[in-house]
Amino acid sequence: MNDNSGQFGRIYCFKDRKVLKGSAKASKKLKALNNVLDEKGLSNILWWKERMQACKKPSTVQLVKRLEYSNLLGLDVNLKSGSLKEGTLNWEILQFKSKFPREVLLCRVGDFYEALGIDACILVEYAGLNPFGGLRSDSIPRAGCPVVNLRQTLDDLTRNGYSVCIVEELQGPTQARSRKSRFISGHAHPGSPYVFGLVGVDHDLDFPEPMPVIGISRSARGYCINLVLETMKTYSSEDGWTEEALVTKLRTCQHHHLFLHTSLRHNSSGTCRWGEFGEGGILWGECASRHFEWFEGNPVTELLSKVKELYGIDDEIAFRNVTVSSENRPRPLTLGTATQIGAIPTEGIPCLLKMLLPSNCLGLPVLYVRDLLLNPPAYEIASTIQAACKLMSNVTCSIPEFTCVSSAKLVKLLELREANHIEFCRIKNVVDEILHMNRNSELREILKLLMDPTWVATGLKIDFETLVTECEWTTVKIGEMISLDGENDTKISSFSVVPSEFFEDMESSWKGRVKRMHIEEEFEEVQRAAEALSLAVTEDFVPIISRIKATTAPLLGGPKGEILYAREHEAVWFKGKRFMPSVWAGTHGEEQIRHLKPAVDSKGRKVGEEWFTTMKVEDALTRYHEAGAKAKARVLELLRGLSSELQVKVNILVFASMLLVIEKALFAHVSEGRRRKWVFPTLTESHRSKDVKSFDGVDEMKIAGLSPYWFDVAEGSAVNNNVDMQSLFLLTGPNGGGKSSLLRSICAAALLGTCGFMVPAESAIIPHFDSIMLHMKSYDSPADGKSSFQVEMSEIRSIISAASKRSLVLVDEICRGTETAKGTCIAGSIIELLDKIGCLGIVSTHLHGIFSLPLNTKNTVYKAMGTVNVDGQTRPTWKLMDGICRESLAFETAKREGVPETVVQRAEELYHSVYAKEEFPRKDGTVLEQFSKTSFNVSDGSNHQLNNTSGKAGQRIGSTDQMEILQKEVKSVITMICQRKLIELYKQEKPSVLEILCFSIGAREQPPPSTVGVSSVYVILRPDKKLYVGQTDDLEGRVRAHRLKEGMQKASFLYFTVPGKSLACQLETLLINQLPNQGFHLTNIADGKHRNFGTLDPAFESLSVR
């Protein structure tokens, strides 16, 4: 740690009782403080000094010069306002700071949140605030933000990695010359926002993804990563990680603090820079660019102690272990693999996540799918996910909207009792959707299947019956307390003489939160107070208004007056001028004018020359505000009480919310997969590691019609390939021939299948790999002092050390970064090793000399990307074929990219003079010829095309309300009308077409994935009981579009699918013209007049509802 004392002030070491730099006067003043800081306190000051040295803004640097590192605030007691005398505000702030020494402290002082010393410097540097008093050198650094800007300031600080402790002052009157009492109201951490007071507001708070504290250590099995979530009070510990997987985790998981265990220093080099030589270099390079601290002892218990110290958590608080055994689970993706297939968004690489999910699927479901790709599940979980997805693909009933709530948000709001009525409504939606799915026979099976994937995601093991029972209890408990949508038993007060905005502002902060039955007494008192206020205004102000209006000819400059709401002062006053009578003659209104007095604010100061009130009105206002405050306090008490009741069920709520996140993610994936015409692969459990002989291709990977995952087959044709892989492929091909695309496509398909997802192919058999590793091109790393070849060798070393018989290894253009002869030999040796290991995979190369080497391989197969000759020019076919391709198309590529013609011609001359006559013999001495044919076809026996069958409609629990009755009538009529039309059209030639299955989509529900790409006819049951008939090939999009219209948010739908758009159009027009004959009102009846069929069929006029 560098000590720039001249720039960064003075540091006092209390351990040695020595002043490193400073005056005798200062040392005397510090004698009273030298018992405050111990060795831990000194380490905290040094920690802040490092942060001060990182400040760059000129204004911050000037402030830093005024710091004195003798206390946690960095205050110089010799400067103006720098006193730390007991009882002063500075002393009080220092006491709060000592409880959370590594957090920025903001203290409420009136209408501002203030920071002193070191904390003021942080605010100026990272929150863009200006210092109080400018840059005067004779006073301590001070900065702050207005109360209304607190949220923005906290966001700025947490975004830059700082935790913030917020100190509030008790509101209300205080005795003269006494200081307001203050308390720590909460904290804001990266990934965990400040929630104090949220229970009383009527808006939501966005919760970012929680940021864990990460600890990394070394064990006999490899690297161990421990993650602790302070918000959730959970931790996990996973062993056996590779350094590449750790780097991927660090890149994708934003963390609050990083701790490195001293076990990482134990290496063959014996150097403190534990990654300087050999293994660990990649991880060291990643950690060295971040802030981290060393720790020792037990990696788990010591890390938990560090977390409790950081967040000020009592030692008695227990953290729950959510570690799920990683046995039989594939290794996490390496950084290279994740970036090269776009599992982590990377510039220039097609993003796999964007292909898996529709564009309107955002937030928590995307994070779940990303984490699943980066950490593939065990075979049992992957099979369960696939089974659930298959059921989702065949569901015909409508599905819930799937309310997604952050687990961290649930835990924090309930723990701190800050959940407001909006959050309770959202929690009720979560449990209601679970119960809705349980009541539906189709959806219940999906719900049961996803219990285990939810266990893996949350670490909570909950049986299905318990989940349902607890959800029922929760929905009843919330429904009994919270005022839900559509319930309006607590209307805002309204009186003609009082501005409506006044009552709206005063009462909207507590009315509509809980049911009136729980606050009946307080509600009635507010109502009586509002009536008394209205009466006072009527008696004291209205006569004056009447007098002014009765003026015979109100000219410019005449009397003016009105009753107005003074929002800033939360009062209703009379505002007027020139209304005093010139002669007091006892006329109407004069008595009220005599009672007027100037209006004053809460501090007794006159508001203005035009604002007036009376004692009666002021008394009524005071009574009304006191009644309102009492009612609001009661509402907040009830909400906090409900939080306490639900707190004991928090594990159930966390489980239920994650279950819905998974449901939404998988339903979205299935919808997008069906749209893209992807298929479900046959997922096999590999037995290679168990020395069991493979039968029926159980350890083979067969993919028919594989297309690049970034191509949309539904929008256009892509070049498909058939892959039958039973061993290692050695792949050659020209530049631009599709080698890299093939490797990415195979990697993505294998990963998707291993996770239980759909794959971009016509059919597929995919083993459940224990690791999937893709190595593409390497770049040099100047920061680590490594060339591109060094980086490549480091990654290859990691691949071959992690590869097993159950692995998929894909290496693109091996050993491209060094001289040809030795690079060829290294590549050959690597191929021999992979062949010996027995893994599946592909190694692509342009090093044709490898075929001249005496390679000791048994199973490696030569494959090539095909080319054809068109008009004397060689063109790539992008098809996988048997054999070797010697053509590189290097000269053609150079020309196409604009290399000067003279350069390319000279290159051709040099090539023909040296290489034209060379032939590359095979090991048996024969010369290999390039295949001219394209790819082979997978035999019928291996083409396992999966058929999607439609399931039965789910049973819905009936209701007796009018909308349910209307829905049943409409359903019956459209079934009969369309059934008759189909009989007429097909005359029993296609009996399978004649059955009309009509399904409903209720409010807050959406169509199932089985409607994607299928022609549908739908009927909207509007809230006004009118109907709208339409047809579409995108029912989900059409439903979404209709519900965006005003008043249509809760509209329900009926729909049925038909084979083809033409038939859908006919039935649409038929219904538009025939439904009015059955007594139904349509909003789009005019649409039927523009069609040529279905208008005058008397046979349908006699149809009636049965």
Automatic annotation (TrEMBL):
PROSITE patterns xrefs: DNA_MISMATCH_REPAIR_2 (PS00486)
Top-level taxon in the UniProt lineage: Eukaryota
Record's keyword terms, sorted: ATP-binding, DNA damage, DNA-binding, Nucleotide-binding
Secretion signal, residue range per the UniProt entry: none
An individual GO BP term: mismatch repair
PANTHER family hit by this protein: MUTL PROTEIN ISOFORM 1
Full protein name: DNA mismatch repair proteins mutS family domain-containing protein
Species of provenance: Rhamnella rubrinervis
Lineage: Eukaryota, Viridiplantae, Streptophyta, Embryophyta, Tracheophyta
